[in-house]
Amino acid sequence: MRLQLLSSLPKASMMHAEKVAAARAFLAQKTSCVPEVAIVLGSGLGDFADHISIHHTIDGNDIPHYPVPSVAGHHGKVILGSSAGKSLVLIKGRVHRYEGYLPDEVTFYVHLLAALGTKTLILTNAAGGVNFNFEPGDLCLITDQLNFTNARLSANATTARKREIYDAELIRLIKKVALQKGIALHQGVYAGVLGPSYETRAEIRMLARLGADAVGMSTVIEACAAVSLGLRVAAISLITNKAAGLGAERLSHDEVQRIANQSKERFSTLMSAIIDAL
Ligand code: HPA
Fold first, then answer.
1. Whole-prediction pTM value?
2. Distance in Å, CA 192 to ligand 1 centroid
3. How many angstroms separate the alpha carbon of residue 142 from the centre of ligand 1?
4. Is 150 a catalytic residue?
5. Using CB atoms within 10 A as the burial measure, which of 1, 158, 175, 200 is most buried?
6. What's the pLDDT at 214?
7. Is the Cβ atom of 42 under 6 angstroms away from ligand 1?
8. What is residue 32's predicted lDDT score, i.e. its pLDDT?
9. What is the dihedral of CA 234, 237, 238, 243, to 10 degrees?
10. Do 22 and 65 meet the contact criterion of CB atoms below 8 Å apart?
11. For residue 20, is pLDDT > 80?
12. Which one is catalytic: 38, 49, 74, 114?
C-alpha cells in the first residue's frame, strides 16, 4: 500500500508540471516579457486593472488547464500590462477550495507565475475583521498567517532558506508607502479557513484568542506555494465586514462586494504607489 502510494507520486507531480508548462507556452505566445510583479485581485478589487496600462487580457478559459472561478463577482482573467515602468501580471479572480478545487488547482496560477519567471507576488483579498478595532473598509497588511486549510508548505519548502511566509522587506516597503500616501493601514495575522460559509461566533472568538486579526477563505495556500517556489510574497486584506458576532449586520457576499466597491479607489491608490516603489 505504502509502496504503491510512493510510486504514484512522481507521475502525479509530472502531470501537474506538464499542465503548467502548457499554460506557460500559451502565455509565451502573447508576450516575451517576464512580468516582474504579479498581483492577485481579491473579491470586488478587480477594478484595479483600470489603473494600469493593459497589453493583453486573457480569459482563463483560453489558457490550457487554468482553473476558473464559479463565484459571482469573481472573474477568471490573466491581464498582462505595465505600470510605473514595471511589467505586471494581474490575476483577476482566483479559485477557492470551497468551490471544490484541489490545492494544486488553487495554486495553479502560482506555479504558472514561477514558470514565467515572476519574482514578486502581491496577494489581495476580502476578509472579515476579527480584531475588534478593524472596521469595514479598512486595509490590513498581512504580516503572518494561521492556516486552517489543511494544505501546507511542500516538503522541499520546509528545507527552504526562509521560514517566514511574508517578506520582511516588502512589509517595510508597503508600510512606508502607505504612510507617505496618508493611507491608514493596519497590520495583522490572517486566518485562512476553508469556508464556504462564514464562521460562527464561537469560531471567531477562538480565532481571536489564537491571534488572528482577519479571517478569509483564500491566500494562505497560495502564499505557501509561492514561498516554496522562491517568490517573495506580500498580502493585503480589505476588511469588508466585522467577523461573526462582532458587528450588527448580517454577513453576506453582497455586503462584501458593496464595501469593496466603496474602498476600491483607496485600494488602487495604495497598489499603484506600491508598484511604483518596488
Ligand atoms: N469570513 C470569512 N471570509 C470572509 C469574511 C468573513 O467574515 N469576509 C470576507 N471574506
1. 0.91
2. 10
3. 15
4. no
5. 175
6. 98
7. no
8. 82
9. 180
10. yes
11. yes
12. 74
